[in-house]
Design goal:
CATH topology of chain A: Farnesyl Diphosphate Synthase
Number of domains of chain A: 1
Distance between the termini of chain A: 38 Å
Oligomer: homodimer
């Protein structure tokens, strides 16, 4: 099974749990709406790429870790899109969850997706019991307090914002979790050594996201664009200009590749990361800088 | 350390994580507000009582399980109190989290408390790696889909409600998780056998809650009363009358005690459960039925 199919299959298995007889059907529908059809799945692909480079000797655990990372990403989108935050009407080219199902079910679908991430990991505990703790710690720390994506989002509620913490927590933390969890799932002796790769990829992705927000259309992106400028949010484009932001993205991608720890599949992973980095540059800017 | 001190200490350790330097301080304050000062702590006491009856040979894991159960209970209160659900202004005698910190931080504090429950468990993984999966599965299933408390709450968003599923999921599921997780943390060979005790205690607690809503004052309870009647919610008092509800509570408590599985501390646990059951009856009704 290729990586994309493996991710979709793991996510499908997870979401199916919500559709058991006797469970509230609209909650299950809202969860499915939040997870499918797929987005870029960039974080779970990263988890599986790292697990693969480390030998991937417990594929069921790596698949569960990848699914958990994506479920948490989807949960954060559901809650961040709500009227009390971004008030986004569309996501992945269709109505956001609260527009389709109402705010109460958006709150609950987000909650249920967070929990589902950990249920998904618990279900494969027996394939490598001693690895479950490190994987869950990596995943939990990537989304929770003190420095995960929920903490990152909470900076929007502070009177005084630490911008670098805000960006690192809101975006970088889940990329770091994706790499560390992938390495831990494959039994890498120094899973924490993979954090730097995730941090740098997260920063690169944040710049790429700023670029897309500046140059793409709502149709091509499937969500509203130009939001950074409208909301006065910090952005690499505002800070460095378009060409400068593209150059920064390339620099960060190279720094990320250089941070890949020693592992059996190091060369292969380097090639894959460079290829993925190319895809981060919006097509209409691919020749710039 | 007695049970109450052990629970408060575990919760204090957990919440302290949010207060690290570099984390958003208002999120940490909202989380602390949601967890302290203490409520009845009835669910974590149940977890420790079951773990104790099963030998409690890994106390750090049992304490973490108890804290996780209570953190998830607090998270559900934070989200359920929000304007899109119960719109409750007070909780435990002070403003609800969204009244004190605003809706965005209520959403995020609830999210962070859910995640903190699993982080807390992951942190003690090494004391008994092979038990972590069963404990996390019990905890996750008690709060998530298809039959946990989030699913229970979601029945309020369905056009057609299955009342028995609603009550069992919304209240009973976390009691069942509290018993199963306590048994699993202590290495009981048949942790699932403890579910029936939790189910029955959860049902008893639901009846007790209905009684309190009917006969207590907002001052004595620390939250609004008479809400079931105002919102037309199903209630044991509406169904059986006051005396009938007290009788039902007593019947359920006895059935719960009878469901305690064989374990080293069975006699002690029976005595403890009967004593706890007495406390469930509101004082002004304690001589009725």
């Amino acid at each position: 099974m290729d990586v994309a199919a493996r991710i979709e299959s793991s996510l499908a298995d997870a979401v199916l749990l919500a559709e058991a007889s006797g469970a509230p059907p609209r909650l299950a529908a809202a969860m499915r709406h939040a997870v499918f059809p797929k987005g870029a799945r960039i974080r779970p692909r990263l988890t599986l790429a790292v697990a693969g480079a480390c030998g991937d000797d417990r594929p069921a655990l790596a698949s569960a870790a990848a699914a958990a990372i994506e479920l948490l990403h989807c949960a954060s989108l559901v809650h961040d899109d709500m009227p009390c935050f971004d008030d986004a009407e569309t996501r992945r080219g269709k109505p956001s969850v609260h527009r389709a199902f109402g705010v109460p079910l958006a709150v609950l679908a987000g909650d249920a997706l967070i929990i589902l991430a950990f249920q998904t990991l618990a279900r494969v505990a027996t394939v490598a019991p001693e690895r479950l703790g490190p994987v869950i710690a990596a995943v939990g720390d990537g989304v929770g307090v003190p420095f995960g994506i929920v903490a990152g989002q909470a900076w929007e509620c502070e009177p005084k914002v630490d911008l670098s913490e805000y960006q690192r927590q809101k975006t970088g933390a889940l990329f770091a979790a994706a790499t560390v969890a992938g390495a831990a799932a494959a039994g890498h002796a120094e899973a924490e050594a993979w954090r730097l790769l995730g941090d740098r990829l997260g920063e690169a992705y944040q710049v790429a996201d700023d670029l897309r927000d500046a140059v793409e259309t709502e149709e091509s992106l499937g969500k509203p664009v130009g939001r950074d400028a409208v909301l006065g949010r910090p952005s690499a484009v505002a800070e460095f200009g378009l060409d400068g932001a593209v150059a920064r993205l390339r620099h960060l991608s190279e720094a990320a590749v250089a941070a890949i720890p020693c592992c059996p599949g190091q060369a292969m992973l380097r090639a894959l990361m460079l290829q993925e980095a190319q895809r981060l540059v919006p097509r209409k800017l691919a020749t710039a800088a």
